[in-house]
Amino acid sequence: MAKSMKVVFVTSEAVPYAKTGGLADVAGTLPTYLEKLGIDTCIIMPMYKKYDAEKILELDVELNGIKKVEIFRKDRTYFVSSPEHFYRDGLYGTPAGDYPDNCERFTLFAKSVIALLDKIEFDIVHCHDWQTGLIPLLVRRNNISAKTVFTIHNLGYQGRFPKEKFPLLGIEWDYFDIEGIEYYGDMNFLKAGIIYSDIITTVSPNYAQEIQNYENGFGLDGVLRKYNHKLFGILNGIDYSTWNPETDALIYARYSDYEGKLKNKFELTNECLFEFARPLIGMVSRIAGQKGFDILLKALDDIMALDYNIIILGFGEEEYCQRLKKFEEAYPGRIIVSIKFDETLAHRIYAGSDFFLMPSKYEPCGLGQMISLRYGTVPVVHRTGGLADTVFQYDAAAGSGNGFLFESYSAESMIQALSQARTVYFMTDKFKNLSEVCMKYDYSWNRSARQYGELYNKLFIQKT
Ligand code: ADP
């Protein structure tokens, strides 16, 4: 690995500063692991409120006239500050919908990044999701001597804006083309990222294949097929310093084996007023169509008939929340639905449940199943995206696998998997063994960071 390689991460969110989803974890955590490989990494992101950072320069950026943008810095992170555009309650919108000026906001961000690149040293610019899709285009158009990587964390969000806003970009109309940023008469920032980057990655190998199909391509499958020579899937990792049952201060009792795990189940079921002996399903999830709540709602009566208890922690779409709450009322002592964002309860569910259910309709990578494995909680998942790359069907006879998968996206198919899982649960020795096997899977960032390092290296060699 070339010691001097410098990578700039450009992202709209990163822990610990701003987070709406998995992207923030990746953008905030991966640089630490890249540094361990000797890759010098910095981050550029918008400044959503006053962070404890030092102002380092001012830039003039053209966006319907000249805008003054300030750049702040703390450690390895640069913040693009324009309070008028970024100081808001939500990152991209409110519960009522997206901000109407998202096109202006992220065009300003992209142009500020391009201006900032002029002031810092770098070799590779690694952009994430539609909010940064313009950057590979601008790097190429402006003949900036850098290679670009563009990572798709969720193809479902594309940054699509009307043609009337194209002049904001300040680029030639040639780019408004089917082979460019144009998409059914609109602009599509994600598409620009795909076309103009040197390498595209997505967050699991299986999702990299799936998005090339009509069913999961969200209208961009054709473009992705065309550019699949530069498309790679690299699995996300989880941060084992946060997710480790041996050191986790948020769970009831720390553990490294199945007996220790049972203490957590005992406390969790006690708190829920659940019977300890029944198999317990946990879910921690955004409550959204993507996450499989339509089939879950259809299956809940049958799940109860299989003798399971279930605890669901989530936050999101109102209609699903209300329907789930009705089930909680209908099955007292069997179902708990907790509608909130709660880090402590999330850890306790991962530690205290027997099974972790992820019936996602599609799942670019998924963190929940990897976390649950670390806690010895056996995943039951729909075979899709990153779930199919990380969960392998358990075979009691061979003693292989780490969970249960269902093939078709339906309530019936989910029930079948849960029925198999229940059978294994009551084969006590086998279940204990399975849980302990799960705890040993390694989905840390080390492996993913090495794979990103290899891709950067390829580009670095081309550049030098
Ligand atoms: P996505 O990024 O699509 O929401 P992931 O599975 O990749 O799904 O990541 C979700 C992360 O958010 C997991 O770490 C999960 O534990 C956490 N999470 C989701 N909902 C909640 C909640 N209501 N309270 C606490 N943590 C949550």
Explain the overall architecture:
The protein has a nine-stranded mixed sheet with strand order 3-4-5-2-1-8-9-13-14, sandwiched between helices. It has a six-stranded parallel sheet with strand order 17-16-15-18-19-20, sandwiched between helices. The mean pLDDT is 96. Helix content is 37%, strand content 21%. It is elongated. It has helices at residues 22-36, 83-86, 102-117, 134-141, 189-196, 205-210, 221-226, 258-272, 293-305, 318-330, 343-352, 368-374, 385-390, 411-425, 428-439, 445-463; strands at 6-10, 40-46, 54-62, 66-74, 77-81, 93-94, 97-98, 124-128, 147-152, 160-162, 182-183, 186-188, 199-202, 231-233, 280-287, 309-316, 335-339, 355-358, 378-382, 404-406. The chain has 464 residues and is an alpha/beta fold.
Strand content: 15-25%
Say what oligomer this is.
single chain
Strand order of the largest sheet: 3-4-5-2-1-8-9-13-14
User: What is the residue-mean pLDDT, rounded to a whole number?
Assistant: 96
Derived from helix and strand composition plus strand pairing, the structural class reads: alpha/beta
Shape descriptor: elongated
Number of strands: 20
Helix content: 25-40%
The small molecules bound here are:
adenosine-5'-diphosphate
Largest sheet: 9 strands, mixed
**Which regions have little confidence, pLDDT < 50, spanning 5+ residues?**
none
Intertermini distance = 14 Å
Helix segment count?
16
What gyration radius follows from the Cα positions, in whole Å? 23 Å
